[in-house]
Amino acid sequence: MHRRIRWSMIFLMTLLLSACGYNDLQSGDEQIKASWAEVVNQYQRRADLVPNLVKTVKAYAAHENRVLTQVTEARARVGTIQVSPDVLKDPQAFARFQSAQGQLSGALSRLLAVAENYPQLKADANFRELQAQLEGTENRITVARNRYIKSVQDYNVIVRSFPTNLTAMLFGMQMKPSFSVSNEAAISTAPAVDFSAPAQK
User: Fold this and answer.
1) Mean pLDDT, residues 152-180
2) Any idea what the Cα angle at residue 7 is, between residues 5 and 10, rounded to 5°?
3) d(CA 185, CA 60)
4) Residue 156's domain is classified under what CATH number?
5) In the chain, alpha helices (H)
6) Tens-digit pLDDT profile for residues 4-15
7) Distance, CA of 155 to CA of 28 (rounded, Å)
8) Domain count of the chain?
9) Residue, of 15 and 175, whose pLDDT is higher
10) Residue 1 included in any domain
11) Coil, strand or helix: which one is 181?
């Protein structure tokens, strides 16, 4: 008799959790984690390009120390930030991640602008390959970030909607952070990599 009551209670609780959106919350949370992993993967891909890019530019423009140092330091800051899914539970850590990536984007843009003044660098096959890889990576970052933003939006709607908001509160599920508008504007612009125009003298 007790076993039957216990199984009935488990069955009833399962139905209640399903009806209150528990499964939707779990599914949304997993989608965010998967989307976040792809964002991190693409940002890491970009960071991995930086040392070779800096080395190639340095071979032609060693005296551009300030710009080369800025890129190297920006990449180092990116590397010091923990990017596990736990970042999504800490708005301040998420903001630091955004800021570091934005600084690296800006530094890369300045590095590529410097390259405009060096025709031999622009003609270097290794540099052209690196800049093509960087352009492709920036595009993949934009796609991955947009998927993450959409996943967060869908999840946050569930967390805020009745009756799933009650389930979210019961299990401590909170809204997830997304990329801020100001930061999004800064980091969604891929560095200019068109070297078809003649260099200024």
Assistant:
1) 89
2) 110
3) 32
4) 1.20.1440.20
5) 2-19, 22-60, 65-80, 91-115, 119-123, 125-160, 164-170, 181-187
6) 666 656 655 555
7) 5
8) 1
9) 175
10) no
11) helix
Give the side-chain half-sphere CA count within 13 A for 133. Answer: 17
pLDDT digits over 140-160, tens only? Answer: 999 999 999 999 999 999 999
Average pLDDT over residues 51-75: 93
DSSP 8-state assignment for residue 197: S
* Centroid of chain to Cα 27: 20
Could you tell me the residue range of the domain that residue 57 belongs to?
26-187
DSSP string computed for 60-95: H-TT-HHHHHHHHHHHHHHHHS--SGGGGG-HHHHH
> Is position 175 within any domain?
yes
Amino acid letter for position 157: V
Question: Does some domain include residue 19?
Answer: no
> How many CB atoms are located within 10 Å of the residue 129 CB?
12
Using alpha carbons only, what angle is made at residue 76 by residues 72 and 77, rounded to the nearest 5 degrees?
Answer: 120
Structure tokens of 113? 């602008």
**Residue at 13 is within a domain:** no
